[in-house]
TrEMBL record:
Homodimer. It holds the Pfam family Methyltransf_2. It comes from the Eukaryota. Residues 401-608 form the O-methyltransferase C-terminal domain. One of its GO terms (biological process) is methylation. Residues 231-259 are annotated as: Disordered. Keywords: Hydrolase, Methyltransferase, S-adenosyl-L-methionine, Transferase. This is Acetylserotonin O-methyltransferase like. Residues 302-380 form the O-methyltransferase dimerisation domain. InterPro entries: COMT-like (IPR016461), COMT_C (IPR001077), COMT_dimerisation (IPR012967), ITPase-like_fam (IPR029001), Maf-like (IPR003697), SAM-dependent_MTases_sf (IPR029063), WH-like_DNA-bd_sf (IPR036388), WH_DNA-bd_sf (IPR036390).
């Protein structure tokens, strides 16, 4: 969840950071933005003398970095991002621009110039919104810069050299890093600290606010975005339509938008002296009760601290089927819901209020009702229902995560502590009961449904006549594939106990002939013939030995020129994003999540070539590769 509503506007977009700077990645990650990192190949060689002011150079370089990435992704990788962000940080002293030092001597030259003096740090930023029209790339470019003044103390030669030998200056503009050892050199900073570190976050948010919430003519005092506008300013506004929207909506409620993501969060908002809500700050009062200064609330940390309460409220409401009740019966009072589901009135009321505060329910004088998102994703009967996965999270993942401390200490999955069983084989031991088996399948079905369209369309698969979805479970992806590619015949291959339970999940009233279910164990039995093999959410679950068995078999049966499609959440190269995949590993599954280069390496090892990766922006990304033809 992104707390800041303007950054929240980027949640549903494919955002690319065109920068290799780890600091920029960290600054944006820290505020909850999900993005892909594609470092720019643009060489920072613009002619400095052709710019009248240093900031113009930084802005132009930032723009060129972002343009290069947008064009490259569109043309070379056939992936048009929604938004590309580029940035360039420079240090300016005595009318000279300093970039990153090329060697230690250069670092010494730069630091000597800064010694005992004030200088400016400029970061230029470009935000490019991209659209692909008739295969042509169209772009809207917004740029800006931020200046921060920094003063160095008088520093001895010895200290400068000691600092240079630490290695820190080499990848940093001006030859210092204010966020680390370089902080010791600095006497004062005037302006945005993060701008010096490499990214002016505050100005960036204001720019996004200007872009996504242009000022309303009905509300002149909000016209200028001198501060990041308050949360309630944004409520119930959609992109670019604030001219006609009003600002009289209720304060303080965070809401799920139609895509199921939070659009705002006002829990930590407060009012400044002019009565304008300021988002993240708490006024500190002196003895006279006068607001002195504002301390930043660590919103992200507070949100994490409380995350378990919110998860559990969602789980319990789902378990009690409250969203189903409300979907069928409309607004209901707490007492009636309590009677229907057989719970206490006071407990139910608290739970319903918690759900309303989380944006899952709406509360009006008529009673509680589902939000649109709750109807779509939380009621158990919808096509895109996540009910199965939520119940799986409550009954299976929650107990495992309750034992996380032991899991980390021992480095192993805690099935024995959570369930009293050392289960390796899910279906034969722990998943012994029909109910548990169906619950697990329902969980997998929820995710497969939500991701199937993006997986099916990530690449053009129309060249294939037959596909075999190994571990294809309920057939959700298979059904999507035959919808998208009417000439494709898909076989779902899964364990007999899974296949025996698939009938419940089949789409009704649809011609399902092209999907066939075959039972077998992909580690032991021979695999059905197909032009395209699919492994969706399989590889991350198994240890290397098992993967070796499986990929050797797929490679042996896959004919040269035919293909393998892998659907998994692909980690970035640092393996810290997206956190949904990183957190999944935390329960110590025997398998692991992989980065793009790791998938490439793994697949090439088993004779697959031309490995292409598509980051979909959905929960699953897609890797397509082809069996090496014999002549290669
Ligand atoms: C003054 C200062 C700078 N930096 C780093 O200096 C690099 C500037 O170089 P850039 O050309 O803008 O970026 P890059 O690192 O080459 O990445 P890219 O965007 O790919 O060009 C960026 O990293 C910044 O964080 C710090 O980490 N701390 C500081 O106090």
């Amino acid at each position: 969840m992104v707390l800041n509503p303007v950054l929240g506007k980027l949640v549903s977009k494919r955002v690319v950071l065109a920068s290799a700077s780890p600091r920029r990645q960290e600054i944006l990650t820290n505020v909850g933005l999900r993005f892909e990192v594609v470092p720019s190949w643009f060489k920072e060689t613009l002619e400095k003398s052709s710019f009248t002011a240093p900031y113009e150079y930084a802005v132009e370089t930032a723009k060129q970095k972002a343009l290069e990435v947008a064009n490259r992704m569109h043309v070379k990788h056939l992936r048009t991002p929604d938004v590309v962000i580029g940035a360039d940080t420079i240090v300016s002293v005595d009318e000279q621009i300093l970039e990153k030092p090329v060697d230690k001597q250069d670092a010494y030259r730069m630091l000597s110039r800064l010694n005992g003096k004030e200088h400016s740090v400029f970061t230029g930023v470009a935000i490019i919104h991209c659209h692909s029209k008739d295969n042509q790339l169209e772009m809207d470019i917004t740029d800006f810069y931020e200046e921060t003044k920094v003063k160095f103390s008088e520093l001895s030669e010895e200290l400068l050299w000691e600092y240079i030998h630490s290695g820190e200056p080499m990848d940093k503009a001006g030859g210092y890093g204010i966020q680390a050892l370089g902080g010791m050199l600095v006497e004062y900073v005037h302006g945005d600290f993060l701008n010096v570190v490499g990214f002016p976050l505050n100005h960036f948010c204001k720019k996004l606010a200007e872009l996504y919430y242009p000022p309303s003519k009905h509300n002149v005092q909000r016209k200028k975005y001198d501060s990041i506008p308050s949360v309630d300013t944004f409520e119930n506004q959609s992109d670019g339509e604030s001219e006609s929207s009003n600002f009289t909506k209720q304060k303080g409620a965070s809401k799920l938008d139609s895509s199921g993501t939070y659009s705002s969060e006002a829990v930590y908002a407060s009012e400044n002296s002019s009565g304008v809500r300021t988002g993240f700050t708490v006024p500190l009062e002196n003895q006279n009760g006068v607001s002195q200064s504002a301390a930043k609330l660590p919103s992200k940390i507070l949100e994490l601290m409380d995350g378990f309460r919110a998860s559990k409220a969602l789980f319990v409401a789902s378990k009690l089927k409250i969203f189903d009740h409300l979907k069928d019966k409309g607004p209901m009072k707490a007492v009636d819901i309590a009677n229907d589901v057989g719970t206490s009135v006071c407990g139910t009321e608290r739970l319903l209020d918690a759900c309303a505060s989380l944006g899952l329910l709406e509360k009006t004088p008529q009673g509680y009702s589902n939000t649109d998102s709750a109807n779509t994703y939380l009621a158990s009967d919808g096509k895109y229902s996540l009910h199965g996965y939520i119940i799986h999270s409550n009954d299976h993942l929650w107990p495992l995560f309750t034992n996380l401390e032991s899991a980390v200490k021992e480095g192993s999955r805690q099935n024995h502590r959570a369930f009293g069983k050392k289960a390796d084989d899910l279906f034969k031991d722990y998943y012994h009961s029909q109910e548990v088996k169906q619950r697990f399948m329902s969980a997998m079905h929820s995710i497969a449904h939500l991701t199937a369209r993006d997986v099916a369309t990530a690449f053009d698969l129309s060249q294939f006549k037959s596909a075999c979805d190994l571990g294809g479970c309920t057939g959700a992806l298979a059904h999507e594939l035959v919808q998208v590619y009417p000439n494709l015949k898909v076989t779902v291959f899964d364990l007999p106990e899974v296949i025996a339970n698939t009938s419940y999940f089949q789409p009704s009233g649809q011609h399902t002939a092209p999907v066939t279910f075959v039972s077998g164990d992909f580690f032991k039995d021979s695999l059905p013939e197909a032009d395209l093999y699919i492994l969706s959410r399989v590889l991350h679950d198994w240890p290397d030995e098992k993967i070796h068995v499986l990929l050797s078999k797929v490679s042996a049966v896959c004919r040269p020129g035919n293909a393998l499609l892998v659907a998994e959440t692909v980690l970035d190269e640092q393996k810290t994003h997206p956190s949904v995949a990183v957190l999944q590993s935390l329960s110590m599954t025997e398998g692991k999540q992989r980065s793009g280069s790791e998938y490439k390496q793994l697949l090439e090892k088993y004779g697959f070539t031309d490995v292409q990766i598509k980051i979909t922006g959905n929960l699953l990304d897609v890797v397509l590769c082809f069996k090496k033809s014999l002549s290669l």
